[in-house]
Automatic annotation (TrEMBL):
Enzyme Commission code(s) on record: 3.1.3.18
Annotated organism of origin: Marinomonas aquimarina
Task performed by this protein: Specifically catalyzes the dephosphorylation of 2-phosphoglycolate. Is involved in the dissimilation of the intracellular 2-phosphoglycolate formed during the DNA repair of 3'-phosphoglycolate ends, a major class of DNA lesions induced by oxidative stress.
Protein name: Phosphoglycolate phosphatase
GO terms (BP aspect): carbohydrate metabolic process; DNA repair; glycolate biosynthetic process
Cofactor(s) this protein cannot do without: Mg(2+)
Keywords, in A-Z order: Carbohydrate metabolism, Hydrolase, Magnesium, Metal-binding
Protein family (similarity comment): Belongs to the HAD-like hydrolase superfamily. CbbY/CbbZ/Gph/YieH family.
InterPro entries noted in UniProt: HAD-like_hydrolase_sf, HAD-like_sf, HAD-SF_hydro_IA, HAD_sf, PGP-like_dom2, PGPase_prok
Enzyme class, spelled out: hydrolase
Length: 231
């Protein structure tokens, strides 16, 4: 893969740009306590993040990464509503940007790259998080996990982003921390970049064969340093 022909950079949010696990874990545990259940350590909840709100709270109810198929639907619905309410009040309380994220994004934008977010996070939480972390206005648009009928690893959000930005698949690259990002990119026949930190269920992201795999976010910028600035 050559990055010199890329003009559009599509970023995952949680686990790629933002370490949001502390606030997500707090909301999960508030929900569980509200339902009379035992909370979990933040480190445990970290391994459940990455597929969106419904799988996250379902894992909390199950007490495991593998969701209990026998969970009553009314319990799941009740828990999801409570989780979304608790999280809405603390979207950006303890969440922080990963090192060098803001500096790298601003440098890319200055070079003329077009930036967008494709996340499985519910759409209503995206802008409050960006505002809280000083990233408001950096991205052309954001697609959440409930913005479309399908979410990552389905390629629909990536196709939609291309259409919204009047870009070809070959113009774009998907950047994320989980297999959902890489699998969505592969399904769309789009190039991908993985970051080794974040939330990927303790799985080596390399097994999904992203075109590049970085340990630090600003390595994206270092790869682009010697390439031609987009017109």
């Amino acid at each position: 893969m050559s990055l010199d022909d890329k003009r559009v950079l599509l970023f995952d949010l949680d686990g790629t740009l933002v370490d949001s696990a502390p606030d997500l874990a707090a909301a999960v545990n508030q929900t569980l306590v509200h339902l009379g259940r035992e909370p979990f350590p933040e480190a445990t909840v970290r391994n459940w993040v990455g597929n969106g709100a419904l799988p996250l709270i379902s894992r909390g109810l199950s007490g495991a990464k593998e969701i209990d198929a026998t969970l009553p639907q009314d319990l799941v619905d009740q828990a999801l509503a409570a989780f979304l309410d608790f999280y809405a009040h603390n979207v950006c309380d303890k969440s922080v940007l990963y090192p060098e994220v803001k500096e790298t994004l601003l440098a890319l934008k200055q070079r003329g790259y077009r930036l967008a977010i494709i996340t499985n996070k519910p759409e209503k939480f995206i802008e409050p998080m960006l505002q809280g972390l000083g990233l408001s206005g950096v991205f052309e648009f954001c697609l959440g996990g409930d913005s479309l009928p399908e979410r990552k690893p389905n390629p629909l959000p990536l196709f939609t982003a291309c259409a919204m930005m009047n870009a070809e698949i070959a113009d774009c690259v998907m950047i994320g921390d989980s297999k959902n990002d890489i699998l969505a990119a592969k399904a769309a026949k789009m190039d991908s970049i993985g970051v080794s930190y974040g939330y990927n269920y303790d799985e080596d992201l390399g097994i999904h064969e992203p075109d590049f795999l970085f340990d630090h976010f600003n390595e994206l910028l270092s790869v682009l340093d010697d390439l031609k600035t987009p017109a």
